[in-house]
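Dear colleagues,

As part of the handover before I leave the project, I'm documenting each prediction I ran so the next person doesn't have to rerun anything. This entry is a single chain, and its sequence is reproduced below.
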Amino acid sequence: MNKKGQGLVEALIALGAAVIIISAITIAVIMAVSNSDFSKDQNLATGYAQQGIQVIQQKSQLDWETLQASASAAVWCLPQGATDFYPASLGPSPCDVNISGGFVRQVNFTKNSSNCNNTGTQVEVTVAWTDGKCSADTSSSNYYCHQVKLDTCVADINRTQ
């Protein structure tokens, strides 16, 4: 009679161990997929920020005066595929989602920046996005909790000394 009870206990222990192992494997797979999604989004955001820098650099070469006039405002939005930017509205993220996949790209200018030898304009392009790790409240300042920032300096290439 003891052998029957002992076999049942052994079966329960084996079943419990199997559940623990399967749970650990499941958690590892879920974390790997989450990390993979984050890396993919971060790479996309970096590419969108680089595109934004290129748009601003081209604009600085073609129309320096307009770029400098625009640089007086703090934040600008730069939608996907655009060759020009527009003023941002107010809110936790001044620009609405303007790139497919839920990304927001905005541009900040700093005239005569010390980072640009006090002669050029510093351009900072920020691409932000949200996922399940961010606040679900769209009015929260932490709604877009991930971001990539790239900056560069632009100057008037036609300026005479």
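The two ends are 103 Å apart (CA to CA). The chain is about 40% helix and 20% strand.

All the best with the project,
I.
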